[in-house]
């Protein structure tokens, strides 16, 4: 006779095995994706936008087939590398946004954390960004993707700067969304400029001057 209990047990075991296999494949794909993104950033910094998929895949210990399977194209891999570069900045915005600092205070707090992140990344981050700028000229789809990422970055910075107390106003006022948007664009430009200058100077950063420059942006509003 057929033992229904045993059949049910076997089915449950097989189902569990299939689930574990799917999870394992998913985890492996995510590890491969991460390895390719890290290698893309590293190779972009080392060889520029002309770097081949073969070189990136080899650096990651994978094949070009893995690149196409996960990303579909070289351009989409580079786009993922750009998004990865924004991840640390998103964490900084989230952390600073949670404070009740006034306008100069929040500008300095963001500048300090941004520079710490840039220093930890070293010259690789700046070389990668310069390579990405060359790609912006060469590839329309890549340019549109980066434009959207930059727009999202400005939105995050704008939210972070909105509603901050402006200490030099009497009576005390708070920043409007429009003022915060203008400050966000200026803040990004100042910090990007200092990052490039540090790279040109061989990695030397004058963090105090950068922080003072960012704090001075508060005088833009009143």
UniProtKB/TrEMBL annotation:
The chain crosses the membrane at residues 6-24. GO terms for molecular function: DNA-binding transcription factor activity; transcription cis-regulatory region binding. Residues 52-71 bind DNA. PROSITE patterns: HTH_TETR_2. Keywords: DNA-binding, Membrane, Transmembrane, Transmembrane helix. SUPFAM superfamilies: Homeodomain-like. It comes from the Bacteria. InterPro entries: Homeodomain-like_sf (IPR009057), HTH-type_TetR-like_transc_reg (IPR050109), HTH_TetR (IPR001647). Residues 30-89 form the HTH tetR-type domain. It comes from Amycolatopsis suaedae. This is TetR/AcrR family transcriptional regulator. PANTHER family: HTH-TYPE TRANSCRIPTIONAL REGULATOR RUTR (PTHR30055), POSSIBLE TRANSCRIPTIONAL REGULATORY PROTEIN (PROBABLY TETR-FAMILY) (PTHR30055:SF209).
